[in-house]
Design brief:
The protein is mainly beta. It is 14% helix and 46% strand. It starts with a helix and ends with a strand.
Length: 155
């Protein structure tokens, strides 16, 4: 390939790339809050979600969240949604590119068999920890976000 053809191809790619980003929509959370929790402190709430605007909300489902251990810059988080337990490790603000920074849960289909970004989702991110060296004094900040047609009520 000669230089003119190669430069024309690069120019076309450069001009087309920004246009593709203009078409992409970013989803904005419908609810967002920062939870500050001590070790083994339980956050309890009920979550209502629906897939379509005209659909009535599904019965509220119980949601609990707590963290149990902070080790090697990772926070061990336990949640229970609709009486199904989940356990995972979150790393602060993308501690390393390959580490797990967020957790996403489909609120309509928690098993994720037919999941879609258009369905209501819950997302959790580990933001910060204060006094992380001492388990008794440590307080972790976890960002909780809801996307789609979902609402949360703390109890």
């Amino acid at each position: 390939m000669n230089f003119k053809k190669a430069s024309l191809l690069v120019l076309m790619l450069v001009l087309m790339l920004p246009a593709s980003f203009l078409e992409a929509k970013t989803l904005a959370p419908t609810f967002s809050t920062n939870l500050v929790l001590k070790k083994d402190e339980v956050y309890k709430a009920s979550i209502s979600a629906k897939k379509f605007a005209k659909q009535s909300s599904l019965s509220p489902k119980n949601f609990t969240l707590r963290w149990t251990l902070y080790k090697n810059k990772g926070l061990v988080v336990l949640i229970k949604y609709d009486n199904f337990p989940y356990q995972f490790i979150l790393y602060k603000d993308g501690y390393k590119a390959l580490k797990f920074n967020g957790f996403t849960l489909n609120l309509i289909d928690p098993n994720g068999i037919a999941s879609s970004m258009n369905e209501p989702n819950l997302k959790l991110y580990f933001k910060d920890i204060k006094d992380g060296e001492s388990d008794l004094k440590a307080k972790a900040t976890i960002k909780l976000e809801l996307y789609g047609d979902a609402s949360i009520k703390k109890y």
